[in-house]
Amino acid sequence: MVMVDGSLDAEKIAGYFKGKSILITGATGFLGKILVEKILRVQPDVRRIYLLVRAMDAHSAKQRVEAEVTDTELFCLLKEKHGKGGFELFVEEKVVPLAGDVVFENMGLDAPRLEELANEVDIIVNGAATTNFYERI
């Protein structure tokens, strides 16, 4: 991290994400959706943001990302900036929902998708957590 006068240089941090692809787990959680919105708002030149979400298939993953992430009030600034149709196109271009789960081997993803991620992803942010509050600590 770059420090300027004791504080983070936000411009350099935002610039770091330009042209990069990011895999985020836990994107439907409180911090995850804030991270997704912040990246899209301050660095719209991010290449792709892959969001691993618990879902049965690609269609369900897309629906979950829309309902729990991009269709939330948190994204109102981006919606205002792009307009409704423009926002939907922007998200479709940048955000790639992935049906999977970190508890499974290879996150529950098939070999071709894993290879795609290995070739594409520059940054991984693991924010996944269990929603079972009876699990062992």
From TrEMBL:
Catalytic reaction(s) noted: a long-chain fatty acyl-CoA + 2 NADPH + 2 H(+) = a long-chain primary fatty alcohol + 2 NADP(+) + CoA
Protein name: Fatty acyl-CoA reductase
GO molecular function, one term: alcohol-forming long-chain fatty acyl-CoA reductase activity
EC number: 1.2.1.84
Species of the source: Triticum turgidum subsp. durum (Durum wheat)
Annotated function: Catalyzes the reduction of fatty acyl-CoA to fatty alcohols.
Origin superkingdom: Eukaryota
Start and end residues of each Thioester reductase (TE) domain: 24-136
Entry-linked SUPFAM superfamilies: NAD(P)-binding Rossmann-fold domains
GO biological process annotation, one example: suberin biosynthetic process
Keyword Cell membrane part of the UniProt annotation: no
Keywords for this protein: Lipid biosynthesis, Lipid metabolism, NADP, Oxidoreductase
